[in-house]
Give the backbone structure.
Amino acid sequence: MKRYWLFLILVIFFSLSTEAQCAMCRAVLENEEGQNAAEGINDGIVYLMIIPYLLIASLGVFIYKKFNKTKKVAP
């Protein structure tokens, strides 16, 4: 179980500095003087990318808990 948490922490740590622009967005946004729009676009893309992964992960946890319940034995 420790390996799972270590892996999760490493994935979160290394994914914080991602830049998720497509080639067209990058070309348009690099021409601007201020990089505020580019940073906003990056944050929006990363936010939209996280939602499906959270949904899949929560579904996986739900299924795992449903199938791995401990059954109480009546005395």
The mean pLDDT is 77. The two ends are 31 Å apart (CA to CA).
